[in-house]
Amino acid sequence: MGDLGLTAKMHSKQHSSQSSTRQDIVHLSILLAIALCIGIYLISTTVIISRDGVIFIEYAKSFGSTPVETMLGSDHHPGYPVMILAAHKMAGLFAENGPVFGWIYSAQSVALVFRLLAVGVLYFIGKDLVGPRFSFWGVLIIVLLPKSAEYGSDALSDWPHFFFLATGFFLLLRGATHRKLVLFALAGIAAGLGYLVRPECGQLLIYGFLWLGLQFFAKRTWARSESAFAAVLLVLGFLMVAGPYMRLKASPLPKKSISIHDVADFRGSSTAEALVKLGGNIGDTLEWFFVPAWIIGLYGYFRKTSLYKAQQFLVIVFVVLNVALMIWLYTKHSYMDKRHTLPIVLFTIYYIPMGIEALASWLQNIKSKTGKWATRNKDLVFSVLMAIGIAVCIPQLLKPLNQKKLFLRKAAQWLRKNTDKDDLIAVSHPRIVFYAQRRGTNYDEQACRKGAKYAITVPGDISLGGNDAPPWHVVFSLESDDKKSRVVIYKK
Questions:
Q1: DSSP of 1-19, one letter per residue?
Q2: Most buried of the four, 248, 262, 387, 476, by CB within 10 Å?
Q3: What is the pLDDT of residue 15?
Q4: Which DSSP helix (H) or strand (E) runs through 404?
Q5: Which residues on adjacent β-strands are paired with residue 491?
């Protein structure tokens, strides 16, 4: 009888595992199919890529011929440009690449592929944190958020960065939960690969050190030797990948350095402004509709916080550190884009469906004057609230990328038709000469007075006037559709 009972338990466990696997396959198939369709649509309707996208593509072109000189001469990390170069070469094996759009589509395709990969990793992170149901709905929100989709279809490094950040986080989460030392080594490798895309991926080392330090000094569920060895593996995995680039650049943070003085500079007024900016960015990213549910879900999850549980500890550390980074970015460099704050949204997105379910439970208990409420099905209320949120996102998703910048694309078309390939053009917006396939130089007075034959201005550029300025005359002028910007092309 004992053997029969053990066999039955094993069979039940195997059946449960198979059912969970089937559920994951269904969830991922739906999420990836929707993300892929949105990505293809946005890529095919892109009006013009972002300014940073041009920089990454030019980096990729230079890297193909002079890799060391390119890395030394640029503050941007090489990971994403190298991916663009590889994708461009791979695409060239199957079809002839155009001089401009071959590079553009390669860059956008890399961003989309890594968005799809990151969606899979984020789903399994959420499954560990809140279970498969809430994880599915949370990641579906990620897929449908307009800003999230936009960054995954433009020529930007955000989603390659998010993929390695999420992968490293997942490995740390599993390693901390199941005491698997090898996973800390793999997390270090993921952090190193992510660092080559964006230096912020180095934050994974901090999460690992804080968790292992907690085990070493406070809550010793691990042996001290295990904690120390895991920390060594984490660092070695990171340095094995990122170390050569750090040595080449002679700095771990060649673009933006952080010192103790930066922490001391966190003044009350500037910190308050940064927090207001952060809240606005998160609200805009969540289309504001999801913000109440996000707050309710976060409160419900963390009101009984236990720092000794790996799931809660790592999420809290992630949020606190990234909020601190956003404050530093704003107080030190006076800007904070929605691209910078998106990771905070991504790693807390799972608490939105939790908050929506809490709202659904509250609405279900509302009683009318008759003592009853028309709808007493909590799942139905949950579905209605989710449908409203999705409906809020759809109009923004249908807009072509950078539609407001169409006038820059038209200026590029004019240049390509009316200028020679050898003409030097002074421009502050590199996208114009990139699309026009013309030689460009940085727009300043010296360039305008000397070698440049054409100059392009938009609001905020310097004037072409002055006693020593050559005789310029307007040959093309175009106003944006919203009447807020104008591009003017001058000829010497």
A1: -HHHHHHHHHHHHHHHHHH
A2: 476
A3: 54
A4: none
A5: 454, 473
- 200 or 461: which carries more pLDDT confidence? 200
Instruction: Outline where 291-350 has alpha helix (H).
Output: 291-302, 310-333, 338-346
In whole angstroms, give the CA distance from residue 124 to residue 132. Answer: 8
Determine the 3-state secondary structure of 244 from DSSP.
Answer: helix
For residues 406-413, average pLDDT: 92
Q: Would the CA dihedral through 416, 418, 422, 428 be positive or negative?
A: negative
The interaxial angle of helices 310-333 and 268-285, nearest 10 deg, is: 120
Mean pLDDT of all residues belonging to the chain: 87
pLDDT at 468: 44
The amino acid at 367: K
What are the tens digits of pLDDT across the range 102-158?
A: 999 999 999 999 999 999 999 999 999 999 999 999 999 999 999 999 999 999 999
Secondary-structure percent of the chain, ordered helix, strand, coil, rounded to 5:
70, 5, 25
What is the CA angle 26-27-31, rounded to 5?
Answer: 120
Contact 105, 43 (CB under 8 A): yes
Enter the DSSP assignment of 400: P
What is the 8-class DSSP label of residue 201?
Answer: G
Which of 121, 153, 185 is the last residue in one of the domains? 153
Residue 234 lies in a domain: no
Edge-first strand listing for the sheet containing 486-491: 439-442, 424-427, 454-457, 486-491, 473-479
Residue 164 falls in which region: left (phi positive, over 0), alpha (psi -120 to 50) or beta: alpha
Domain that holds residue 85: 24-153
pTM for this predicted structure:
0.91
Q: Establish if 277 belongs to a structural domain.
A: no
Q: Give the end of a domain, one of 98, 127, 153.
A: 153
156: left (phi over 0), alpha (psi -120 to 50) or beta: beta
In a domain, 149, yes or no: yes
Average pLDDT over residues 198-224: 89
3-state DSSP assignment of residue 150: helix
Does 123 map to a domain? Answer: yes
C-alpha–C-alpha distance, residues 473 and 464, integer Å: 10
Token pair of 334, please? 């006076």
User: How many structural domains comprise the chain?
Assistant: 2
Phi, psi (degrees; rounded to nearest 5) at 145:
-65, 125
CB 488 within 8 A of CB 457: yes
Quick one: pLDDT at residue 440?
Answer: 87
User: Measured between alpha carbons, how far is 12 from 6 in angstroms, rounded to an integer?
Assistant: 10
CB 354 within 8 A of CB 130: yes
CB 389 within 8 A of CB 396: no
| Per-residue pLDDT tens over the stretch 223-236 | 889 999 999 999 99
3-state secondary structure of 477: strand
pLDDT in tens, 168-199: 999 999 999 999 999 999 999 999 999 999 99
**Whether pLDDT at 259 is above 50:** yes
